[in-house]
Amino acid sequence: MFKTKSSLGKKITAYFAGCILVLSIIFSFVSYELSMWIVNQYVLPQFENTLQTNIRELERNLDKTLATRSDAGSDSAYASLLAFLNEQKQDMGAEYVYVLGKKDKAYIVALSGAAEKRNADYTFTAGMERAFDNPGTVQFSEVYEDSYGVHKSVFTRLAGTDMIIGIDMNAEFVKKLNRYIIGISILLTLALIVFGFAAGYSIARKIIKPIQLLVQHTQKVAAGDLRDEIKIANNDELGQLATSFNHMSQQLKDMISQLSATSNHVVDSSETLSANAQLTTEMAHQMVAATEEIVSGNQTVSQAAEENAQAMGEIASGIQHISESAVAVAEQSVKAAQEANDGNDRIQKAVLQMDSISASLSHSTVLVKQTNERTNQIGHVVELITSIADQINLLALNAAIEAARAGEYGRGFAVVADEVRKLAEQSAASASKIAGSLHAICEDSIKSVEAMNQMAAEVQAGTEVVNEAGQAFENILSLIDDISQKIQAVSAVTQQVSASAQQVSASAEETVQIASESLENTRKIAASSQEQLASMEESASAIKELQARAHSLQSKLGNFKI
């Protein structure tokens, strides 16, 4: 929490300081630009006016003849010109006053304070070039700095000559003025930054202090201490927040007091309800136990009655089934006799059919053997064809070799030999396929003969089985006649017993119905008792849960101090 308070104060301070910093930088930049604009628009033009006045006065006072003679090499003229330039330098307060010439190259005609520089080579600056190229005009240099200091120069060309005159003035004051403006801007910026930090810190303290009080009070409230009130005398939003928080704390006190009283009442009531519910539950358990015993007794009686009725029903059903079965068996025995006669006739026919099948199989076996022999003969022919095709192929190869030796004359014969070779290869391939097919036919024929022999043996066995079945059918006919007579006698007796069993079964079913109704009513009473017991147990559980929650609420309310 301390980190949060410190961070908030730093953020507010940094915000105000940042705003002041940006504003101070903008203000300093504007002040600097405004000062430089004043220098460029007023100070430097005034300086240039002074330079222009001095150069014009120098131009008026300078004897052009003296300058021309000095340029021509007159020592006396040079001495007079140098003395004049030194005098003008003193009067104007200039650094240098000079006359420069330019023919093939630029050179010094005369330079104040430097007699030894006579006719020394010199390089024209851009301003000097403009003055030389534009007679009658005054040209200025920019403010520049060299190893001798800061200067500004003015030039003009002497009319009717190849010479220019120039004046170098000290411009150190311009540099000092710039440094002064920059220093003032920096000082203003620093002062505004310090003021911004101080103002931000002061405002942050005024804002953070009430917030810290609110945080401390909320920590007490969170810990359950509602005895104190927060006191903030501000009339702003923080004061309104403190008032609202005090009002909320008071409402919490009232609510906790009411909850405490209610929880005490709930605890007392839940204890009374719990005792009553326990007593009612015990009584319900006793009633359920008694009802279950009654249900168990009725269930035993009902089950015994059902078993008796079921037994009588099964007996009656069995007797009825026996009677019906006896009648059905008698009827079926007659049908069985008829079917046995029919079966015997069919068996005799089957014996004749089996003999016919055996004769057909014998004839088919002979035919298949003949087919196999003819297939073998065809195989020998195919082998002969294959041998002939190989010889033809060899002859065609020899013919092709001889045709190649004959050259141009044997070309036609080589073509014929090649065609003969191809036909021989095709014949050999076809013969090979035929041989494969014949081999497969031979194998199938052999398998067919084996299958037919096996089928003939099975037909012989089937004939014997059918003859035995015919004898069995004759024995069955004799037995069926005896059984039919005995079943008719049993059927008459079982019909009388079935009538008596049905009467007894009807009485047993009435007894079962009465016992079932009694058992169902007892079960309904038991189910109702179980439902009442479950309801009482749920009520007791709910009362215990209510009691536990009431105690828990009392424990939690005890953490508050009001």
Structure description:
The protein folds into 2 domains: 2-204, 2-Layer Sandwich (Beta-Lactamase); 316-513, Helix Hairpins (Orthogonal Bundle). The chain has helices at 2-61, 64-72, 75-92, 126-133, 172-222, 237-406, 411-557, and strands at residues 96-102, 106-111, 139-140, 144-146, 149-157, 163-170. The protein is flat, with a radius of gyration of 72 Å. It is built from 7 helices and 6 strands. Helix 5 packs across helix 6 and helix 6 (237-406) runs antiparallel to helix 7. Strands 1, 2, 3, 4, 5 and 6 form a 6-stranded antiparallel beta sheet that branches. Belongs to the methyl-accepting chemotaxis (MCP) protein family. This is Methyl-accepting chemotaxis protein. Residues 205-257 form the HAMP domain.
